Amino acid sequence: MSKTNMASALKSLKVKYNGRYVGTLAMMKNGMVAFSYDDSWLEEGFSISPFSLPLEKKVFVPSKTYFGGLFGIFADSLPDAWGRLLLDRLLLEKNMNRDITVLDRLALVGQSGMGALEYEPDYEVVDAGTILDLDYVAAECGKILKTEYSKDLDSIFKMAGSSGGARPKILTTIDDKSWIIKFASQFDTNDIGLQEYNYSICAKRCGIEMTETRLFQSNTCDGYFGTVRFDIGPRSRNIHIATVAALLEADFRSPCLDYNDLFKLTRILTRENKNDIENMFRRMCFNVLAHNRDDHAKNFSFMYDEKSDKWKLSPAYDLTYSNTYWGEHTTSVDGNGKNPESKELISVGVGAGIKKDRCESLIDEIRGKVEEDLYEYL
Prior knowledge:
This protein is of the alpha+beta class.
């Protein structure tokens, strides 16, 4: 796939999966973006979003508008608040700040997106190197957040890739591993990296599956939190990932789900995989007991294994102390978002097929570890 410069607004875009042609996205007059599978993909491929885009020969048109007219699975490829800010600043500085469409934004993602989906044409707007000094990167990110000039905006943009979330972050390779490294936003305390690292260690002790995490050294703060990417498989072959927001076409910016919904989705997608169901229960308990209320629909994902034709729960991510401006969990627990306790946790777990005594045992185990490891944050 070759890199091309930005041209006039795109009307259509090719979607690929690890180099294979999946189908075509096309802009409609009403601003919605239709999708259709290629015939070759219909013969040998799989549904990239099983509920919204079953493997059928038809033109699919989204009915929801909050993904900018896209189906959720393609919106997953786009960067969130931080990446969007970087792109808008970059286009402004390069005098390219015309109204760009979601197809233009996907073309700017090209091959650099999280997961296995790629887009063609693949626009190239910067040609910059990598910065190795994390303290310097953090300082430049702080300037960008405050709308100050950064002479290394091109490099910061390129290193950010299409990573999600609101906090500044970069994608980089260290010790032959692909890392996501986060930096503080203007709303974070100076120990946010250490805090998220401590949360990750506690989560692993609670039996929650995560990739390797690390606290990268800093001379200006307590360190930068890093986590190994789980969307890159053997031989650098990317893995197809879908967030719950994408799978259910759910607006992650607002409370729209209950953990009962997450368990129903887990059971259907994983074909009643007991390990994934129990891991989801552990995550629910951890989020409640460790006060992670930012448990929205993009903070849970599933991975597709093409060889076995199965979906599985992805490793956990974005686990840290957090509030919401409405003071409740974004995903409610058996209808209770404000102050869910053991009663609601058990009700959800039993409804998902976990025995009551097992639920009680897991809650006690996780509560003990959270109180032991994270007491200073709670």
